[in-house]
Amino acid sequence: MSRWVVLAIPVDGAADAARDVRTVVELEGGPEEAEAALVQAVDTYAHSIWKVRRREIFKCSDRSYFLRLRGRMATYGFLVQLAELVHDSDASPDSRPLS
Fold first, then answer.
1. Which helix (H) or strand (E) holds 80?
2. What are the residues whose beta carbons fall under 8 Å from the beta carbon of 76, sequence distance 6 or more?
3. Do 26 and 34 form a contact (C-beta atoms < 8 A)?
4. What is the pLDDT, as a whole number, of residue 41?
């Protein structure tokens, strides 16, 4: 089983203080489970918007979406991506993903 993270990367509309990449979900599982978690995250992620009035989702690839959220006062854009762990220096040699 692999380890995965779903990341939300602000690309448009977020103030400098809110431009940090956020880990939305972290999980262990297969590619199908990870892609399902990505889709769920894109469908529910709201950043810090109190009330999302419109959600537009653009598929870039099987592991990447562009999400546009429109709130009452502003519009925000996020690149939501799925990333698979390929190396962990703390892992035991037998369980490291890369050879």
1. strand 75-84
2. 10, 12, 13, 14, 47, 49, 68, 69, 70
3. no
4. 97
CA dist 59 and 66 (Å) reads: 6
pTM across the whole model: 0.83
Tell whether the model's pLDDT for residue 86 goes beyond 90: yes
Neighbouring residues of 12: CB distance < 8 A, sequence distance ≥ 6: 68, 75, 76, 77
| Alpha carbons 39 and 12: distance in angstroms, whole number | 20
DSSP string, 35-49: HHHHHHHHHH--TT-
User: Cβ distance 97 to 88 under 8 Å?
Assistant: yes
Each residue of 20-52: pLDDT tens digit? 899 999 999 999 999 999 999 999 999 888 899
What distance in Å separates the CA atoms of residue 99 and residue 89, rounded to the nearest whole number?
12
Strand partners for 22: 8
